[in-house]
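Case study 2.
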Amino acid sequence: MTVWIFWLVAGALGLAVAGVLMRGFWRDTEAADRTDLHIYRQQLRDVDRDLDRGTLAKAEGERLRLEISRRLLDADRAAAVPNRGRGPVLGGVLVAVAVGAAVLGYLRLGAPGYADLPLAGRIEATEALRASRPSQQEAQAAFTPQQVQVDDEFAALMQRLREAVAANPDDLRGWQLLARNEGASGNYAAAADAQARVVDLGEGGASDRAALAEAMILAAGGYVSPEAERVLSDALARDAQQPLALYYSGLTMAQGGREDLAFRLWRTALRVAPDAGFAPIIRAAMPDLAARAGARWEEDAPVGPSPEQIEAMSGLDPEARQAAIGAMVQRLSDRLATRGGTADEWARLISSYGVLGQTDRAATIWNEARQIFTNDGELAIVRAAAVQAGVAE
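Prediction:
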């Protein structure tokens, strides 16, 4: 019954729109006729007025009146003939084709009788599916990794390393080496176990947790389990700009149908780590991901002078060099002020102001950066540039 109501309403709306369009075609034809008659009558009045004023010769006025009168009679006869033009007929054909194409297109591409799918409902359904996805243990059991062939010497070293960490379970450096080499050997499950021990023994940094999540994901054949997702969330809670955690969190959302969240995470990952190993993967996927997320994708173009660019300008005369560097620095400053940037970009801006001799501005940027970057690693990058510019100790 609901389907028939839909079709009745859709049909009524379609007929109403068709009627409005056809009326427009008819009115356009009639309006054109009335406009011609009005113009010719106005021209006759203008000729009479010019004759009365004496600005038009009588012979010339009579000739004009005769010509305009002839055109007026022709226009009046044409207006008296109904449906004289092809406008209404052509309009009717176009309206019929448009309505027919709309109906056929809906029957082919649409889903007659299918219930509405509001955005909130779709997100809820997606989250329900994500919550019921396989666990880490199930995913690892279903995946058989391809073993990396290693020589006998490396295999012997790995065996001794395993025995050493087993004998000294609190050796953080040993677990770090074991996690790295197990992953290099293709033993991703063992690498994940070793990295979990690194997290337990270490200071609990975001990078260690991101590395643990990566090992878990590789052990599951590229699948992000709920357990791996929790590790990633923990990493981002400690450092919201941890590149590897951003990348795999975006992968989590893309796998779970949340392209909108994946787009935001990957855009941030590219901003904070444009040269990371995962960057080409993100760049290749972003156009399609943005289309499905209903977003616009345009990667930020690099701005601001690098040390290599500054060195390349050394051959210019001092005035030209200062002007070229100043223009590039200003673009970088404007971008960081309006859109933010990575620690490397802030460091580049401070270094550039130092090269230009504008230490007061370099100091201002350094003070702003200390308020923005709370992560020790990022702050160290900016601090090194500030020391080089002579505005920090």
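The chain has a mean pLDDT of 78.
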